[in-house]
Structures are given as C-alpha cells and as structure tokens.
C-alpha cells in the first residue's frame, strides 16, 4: 500500500486528453511520447499528478468511455518515435483544432505493420510472450480481427459461428494467425511504452492517474465474450433532472452484479490489475453506479421508463392487500412488472394524467406503495456499493478517486464520506446548500479534487463569459479577496486558477486548456476548445487538438512563472 500513503498529501496536477497534445515527435496527434515533455513541464511547475482520460481502444467510435475493450490500449497512442520509426507528420504546423482518429490510426497501423513484417521473427516472439502473460488478449484480438473484417458491424450481426467466442478464437488464431499476432504485437508495444512512462514519472516524483469507465459498449469484446456479466435487455442511463426532462439513455448494457459476484469479480480484478501496470491513482467513473444504476429497457429512446437497479420492487400481494389490481395500474402506464410479481413505479408517475384521473381513495392507497421499501432499498444499495468498493480496494494499490458529480443521494454521499473516498468538486457547482452562493476556499471538503472544468463541461472561460450571473462571479472571485476587477481575459483566468489552487481540497487537478494562460484563441474562443458535449453525436466530440505544440507551450517563461507562483503559494508543490 506504499503508493497510497505517499500520494495522499496536498498536490496539484494537470488533466490531459492525450490525443490533443501534439509533440514535435508525434504523428498527427498526441501519443505516449507526448507525456515526456509534459512530465518535464509538470515537474518544473510543481505539479505532481498527471491525469489522463481513458486510453481504451475505441474501434471506429470516438468516445473512450464507449470502448470495444475494457483492457486494450488504442493503437492510436503508440509512439512511432519511441519505436524508432521516425516518420514525420505531413505538416509541421497544427492547422486545425481537430484530429481524425480513424485516419491517423490507419496510417500508423500501416507503418507499424511494415516494421512488424520486416522484423517478423523477433516481433512474433515478443507477441507470443505477451499473449501468454495476458490471457484477455486472446479474446480481444479475435474480436478486433473480426471487427475489422466486418467493418465495425455489431458482433450479434456476425455469422453465427463467430458469435461463439471459443469457435472464433480457434478459427482466427489458426486461419488468420499472422493478422492476429500483429494485433497482439500492437498491444505489446502499447503496454511497454505506457509502463515505461510510469517508471519515468516515478523517477521525477510525479504520479500518473488513469481512468476506469464503469460501463462497456454493447458492441465490445467484453460483452461478446461474457454476455452473462451484463443484463442485455437493459441499458444504463440517468433519470430526469433539471438538465434533462427526459433523462439520459447511454445504450450500454447494465452490469449483472450477481453473476460478477459469483465469479468473485474476476473481470474487475483483471481490469484493475492491468491498469496498475500504468497508473498510481485512478478515477472510478460514475461511482454512483456501483451502488445502483438507472436501468431502462434497451429499446427506449428516453429514460422515463427506467428504475434504479437492483431493486426489490413492490410485490403483487402488497397491491392486493390494499385492494388494487397491479395489472390495471400497469395498463394505464403507472407501473411496470420488471420481474414476475414485482413492480416498479415509473419516475414522476404521479404527474401522469392517468394517475390524476384516478379516484382520490385509489390515489391514497397507491401513492404510499411507491414509497414502501425506500429505507430498506437504500440500506441494500449502500451495503452493495460498499462491498464492491471494498473489493476494488483489495484488488490494487492504486488510489481510487470517485467521480461523484450530479445529484448524489445523501446515503451515497454519507457512504463515500465514511469510506474517505476522494471525490470531485467543480468550482462552478460547489455552492452552499442553504444560500446557493459560491463557497469559500476553506469550506471545500478536504477529501476531494477541486477543478475548474471537466472533459464533459464547457471550459472555465466559456462558463465565465456565458453562464450564470457575471456580477456575482466578479464579487466572489475578485472583490471578496480585495483584488482589482480583471481587465483582460488572462487576469480572469489567473484569478480563477488562484482560487482553485487555494481550496482546502487535497488535490487540485486542472484541465490542460484551463491552464493556457496567454493563449489568445483559448481565452477568446473557449467554446472551440471543448473536448465533449454529452448527449451529442460521438463523432462531433473527442477529436480536440490543442493549437500549439507541447514543446512550444511548455517553454513559455511568463506562463510557467505564474503557474509556479500559484502552486507554490497554495502549498501544493
């Protein structure tokens, strides 16, 4: 548990979307090599954490949270330079703010393939050794070769014989052996390059933080190989809230915790053990989902007909006891039989016209049923979530950090607090429960990471300019601490950074773009530098590329001086 002990002190860091930080030695987009100049810069500023978004293979998709494997690293991130293949990008300048990941990946694969073929003997030997140590690679590679063969088509649309993983593995590793070994070789290189970065960072006193998505794409190797780990007729999402009237549907199958538990959570154990080769800390995506998740029938387009899974539900006998036939309530669309003789009430069912038009005495009997098991459900969810998190902590020495944003029910908040899980506090949303005002630096919870933005939000400069009341922001971030009101965008950003570094949170990790003091386009047009707009099509996101080469960015004396001063005065270096 050595790492945990050393990490848990006041620290500052930077979060990057790896493909966005292009280096002079990168090929078209940021890659594993980009972490070396970033590391030197972090060390110089006083940062001691570098956080990455997930690096999983996304196939033909774009979002790293919707990968085709829970293990495999996207070949997009392999550094050709580190491989000794000094192929230069076509352009010396960064022309646009967007990468084309599929095009770049295909070009890289061509270059690595010819290297693989010209050094076949030793390449095959390395790949074989890797395959023996990493059994997950068998199924991933089989899936990947078939995925290419059928141009990204869903695995359940493949010929029937390939829907059986065992048959498919035997076929691919005998009939397509060379192609299969090439994909193993890619994972071997990615593994070597990323684990070398971890060691390099350790030497510099810097910790690398990874990301573990909780859900897995339906069209993925994991779901194809282990459909029993997932509830295939359901999809995960989020219930309606003030951001979305109809909630969110994500399309990912819901995890089948019962089966996972019977297998002693071996899939999670393998994932965490693999991540530990690369990272010292990791972010648990959507930690609330470890306690309970909003489950929606897989064909639904909105989340309105969902329920918190796992749930006991209300039994037929409990309806009959008060003289209500549950079938009649199901017919008018207020409840749903989600397992034999067990019903759930739909979200906001009491707002439905069919409920409003019921006789008052029926309403008086029906409504209390919807509240019947809440206390025991919450107790059950809490115990289940804590058991899972406990297991996670026993599987690895990485320090877990929980993504606990959104409306977190109080029983989960209490649980995370008692477990001393490090959470996340986004400055713009961290407000007083009583007054609704921003809270002071020393009122932040200590066991958290304070941030100005996340990969799913607007950048802090866009928030400043277009969201919320400007006057109250000026009063809080500048007048309150006796600072002159800012006259330039740079002064605004510097003031916000000073605030976030001074918070009581144990960690303060900022998005790379929010540290871009003195980069005119970022300060003036922050909306163009965003990584992801949740709820919009995949291909319009996740392609962001920073406008300046990393080497040029890290050599700016004025910016470095300012950041170093902020880190130093906040006691985080």
TrEMBL record:
This is 4-alpha-glucanotransferase. It is an enzyme of class 2 (transferase). It catalyses: Transfers a segment of a (1->4)-alpha-D-glucan to a new position in an acceptor, which may be glucose or a (1->4)-alpha-D-glucan. Transmembrane segments: none annotated. Belongs to the disproportionating enzyme family. One of its GO terms (molecular function) is 4-alpha-glucanotransferase activity. Its main location: cytoplasm. GO terms for cellular component: cytoplasm. It is found in: Cytoplasm. InterPro entries: GH, Glyco_hydro_77. Keywords: Carbohydrate metabolism, Cytoplasm, Glycosyltransferase, Transferase. One of its GO terms (biological process) is carbohydrate metabolic process. Its EC number is 2.4.1.25.
């Amino acid at each position: 548990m050595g790492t945990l002990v050393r990490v848990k002190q006041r620290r500052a860091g930077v979060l990057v979307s790896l493909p966005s930080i292009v280096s002079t030695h990168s090929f078209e987009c940021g890659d594993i090599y980009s972490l070396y100049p970033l590391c030197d810069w972090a060390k110089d500023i006083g940062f001691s954490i570098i956080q990455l978004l997930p690096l999983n293979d996304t196939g033909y998709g774009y979002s790293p949270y919707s990968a085709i494997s829970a293990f495999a690293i996207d070949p997009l991130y392999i550094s050709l330079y580190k491989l000794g293949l000094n192929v230069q990008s076509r352009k010396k300048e960064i022309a646009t703010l967007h990468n084309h990941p599929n095009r770049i990946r295909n070009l890289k694969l061509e270059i690595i393939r010819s290297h693989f073929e010209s050094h076949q003997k030793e390449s095959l030997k390395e790949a074989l050794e890797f395959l023996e140590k990493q059994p997950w690679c068998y199924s991933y590679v089989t899936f990947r070769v078939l995925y290419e063969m059928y141009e990204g088509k869903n695995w359940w649309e493949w010929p029937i014989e390939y829907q059986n993983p065992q048959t498919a593995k035997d076929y691919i590793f005998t009939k397509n052996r060379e192609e299969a070994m090439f994909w193993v070789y890619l994972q071997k290189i990615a593994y070597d390059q990323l684990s070398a970065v971890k060691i390099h960072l350790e030497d510099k006193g810097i910790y690398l933080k990874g990301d573990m998505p909780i859900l897995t794409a339906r069209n993925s190797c994991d779901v194809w190989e282990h459909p029993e780990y997932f509830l295939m007729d359901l999809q995960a999402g989020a219930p309606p809230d003030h951001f979305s009237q109809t909630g969110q549907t994500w399309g990912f199958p819901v995890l089948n915790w019962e089966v996972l538990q019977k297998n002693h959570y071996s899939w999670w154990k393998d994932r965490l053990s693999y991540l530990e080769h690369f990272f010292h800390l990791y972010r648990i995506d959507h930690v609330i989902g470890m306690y309970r998740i909003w489950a929606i029938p897989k064909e639904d387009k909105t989340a309105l007909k969902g329920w918190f899974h796992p749930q006991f539900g209300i039994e037929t006998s409990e309806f009959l006891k008060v003289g209500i036939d549950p079938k009649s309530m199901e017919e008018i669309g207020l409840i749903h039989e989600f397992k034999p003789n067990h019903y759930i009430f739909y979200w906001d069912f009491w707002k439905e016209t069919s409920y409003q038009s019921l006789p008052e005495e029926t309403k008086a009997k029906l409504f209390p049923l919807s509240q019947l098991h809440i206390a025991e459900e919450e107790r059950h969810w809490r115990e289940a979530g804590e058991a899972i998190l406990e297991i996670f902590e026993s599987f690895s020495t990485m320090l877990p950090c929980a993504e606990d944003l959104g409306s977190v029910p109080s029983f989960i908040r209490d649980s995370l607090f008692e477990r001393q899980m490090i959470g996340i506090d986004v400055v713009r949303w961290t407000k007083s429960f009583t007054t609704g005002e921003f809270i002071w630096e020393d009122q932040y919870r200590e066991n958290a990471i304070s941030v100005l933005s996340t990969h799913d939000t607007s950048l802090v400069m866009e928030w400043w300019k277009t969201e919320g009341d400007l006057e109250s922001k000026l009063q809080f971030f500048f007048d309150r601490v006796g600072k002159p009101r800012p006259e330039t965008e740079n002064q605004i950003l510097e003031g916000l950074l000073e605030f976030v570094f001074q918070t009581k949170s144990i960690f303060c990790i900022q998005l790379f773009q929010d540290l871009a003091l003195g980069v005119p386009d970022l300060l003036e047009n922050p909306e163009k530098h965003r990584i992801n707009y949740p709820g919009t099509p995949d291909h319009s996101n996740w392609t962001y590329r920073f406008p300046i080469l990393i080497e040029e960015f890290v050599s700016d004396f004025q910016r470095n001086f300012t950041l170093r001063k902020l880190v130093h005065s906040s006691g985080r270096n």
